[in-house]
Amino acid sequence: MVPQDAAEPRMAVPAPGWLLPVVAGARPVRFDSVEALEGVDQDIAIARADDWLRKHAPLSIEGDGGDATAYRVAAKVMDFGLSPDDTLDLMLGWWNDQCQPPWEDERLGVIVNNAAQYRHSPIGSSSADVEFDHVELATTSESEAVQNDDDMPVTSGNNPFEYQSAAEASAMALTQSAKPLIRGLLDQGAMSILFAPPGTGKTFVTIDLLYHIAAGKEWAGRKVTKGLAVHLAAEGGGGVRKRYKAYDVTYGCAEDLPLVLISVSADLRSNKVDCKRLIATIRAAEERFDQPCSILAIDTLSRVLAGGDENSSVDGGALVKNVDEVREALGAHIMLIHHTGKDASRGGRGWSGFKGAVDTEIEIKDGAIHVDKQRDSEKPKPIRFHLESVALGLDTDGNAVSSAIARVEASRDDDFADVLTPAQERMLAAFKSAAANKYGDRYRPGDDAFVLSSKEWDAKFDEVGSRLSPIGGRSRQTLDTHRLALLEKCLVKKIKRAQWVATQ
Q1: Residue 106, Cβ density class (10 Å: 0-12 exposed, 13-18 middle, ≥19 buried)
Q2: Given a cut of 90, is residue 447 above it in pLDDT?
Q3: Mean pLDDT throughout 244-248?
Q4: What is the pTM of this model?
Q5: Which residues, other chains included, contact 184 with Cβ-Cβ below 8 Å and sequence gap of 6+?
Q6: pLDDT of residue 312 exceeding 90
Q7: Minimum mean pLDDT among 56-70, 257-271, 276-290: which range?
Q8: Burial degree of 284 (CB within 10 A; 0-12, 13-18, 19+)
Q9: Alpha-carbon distance 227 to 220, whole Å?
Q10: Residue 262: phi, psi to the nearest 5?
Q11: Closest C-alpha to 296, from 343, 330, 254, 346
Q12: Partners of residue 481 on adjacent β-strands
């Protein structure tokens, strides 16, 4: 960093002359005040800045542009809306501890002060809190309009922020409740997330939902509201077109079927232009088919994050904010297609705020569609489906081409619990076989006296599985997933840690 004479005491020094033109670029502009702009929520600004410092900020390394790095980091932290004093306090925490070597308080303070004085924009100017103009509520009659800073009329009649008494809200509960898109599953204008591990059919199920909405056909025995259905396939490639061909071969895709595919990579996290282009493209489709957009499926969430961190509240929050704006502009239901995390029991991977932002959470597992969250209504029972192969014809080289469609069945509450995947059937068979070997003729399913340990159960699964099919190796997580499925279907129960009995 900045060398000092060893014979003199160490003291704060100004940033070197080369630093300012490198990081500031042009002639510096000084502000009369270096306080943060009004309107910035300091608690939110500090939380966002701390998250950025811990997850994304470069560290200052002596001999590798350490001064310039510290300057840029300080400038970025102030972009969130922090004053120079708060910026210094925050940087002296976790971030400074990781620098090599850590900065002395006074020396880092000089760089923070320079970053504040030589800014080209006010502190906090990029904060979400100051992106929106201040609007005064009109106090005049509804017929009298006032002007805001953008010369847009604002009247008490068009102000969306109006209060209702509890009695008034109660009286409107049934007349203004959410309108169904797919009755009992998705509401018009709401937001949902559909997640599953790779290769389990989530895109096939998505296309099946979109096709039935576009065609106005019942889906899984449920009434559907017809409308334009849009599929933003950001990671499908050419293969997604084969899946649409499969639906054309099976059901027919008429010229006037309001189902459209947008196959392009998009940045809906940080690129407002992409958001506007998406809206404009859908508007053109609405005009062509003379149908308002009813649903937009974004496939997948990770692709439209465009390099953002799925675990970051900053990146995740930015995506949700932009997607919400798209939803408001279109008035359509937004469905985010997502992947399951490493621990399938914890749902979709990444930031927990994704789940909190949606009205409906759908999980695909065990050959069925499960609704894990339904904000304002009862969760439906699991809906079974299977993938059906469809021959598409021959390609230009004369090779046979095929794809598949999702065949979704109507939900049957009475027998779903008994439906097992092949792996779950082997898991249950392994339990009964191991218990019979251990207890002999005395064994009776459903009796808590006949306990089997997880270790005994797993050993028998390996033996039974190798006889029935070449399942290959297995992991502890795989076996625990099968075990949990049998537990949820009430076919086994846990007596205590790693101790199990069969219920029937």
Answers
A1: exposed
A2: no
A3: 92
A4: 0.53
A5: 222, 377, 380
A6: no
A7: 56-70
A8: exposed
A9: 18
A10: -115, 105
A11: 330
A12: none
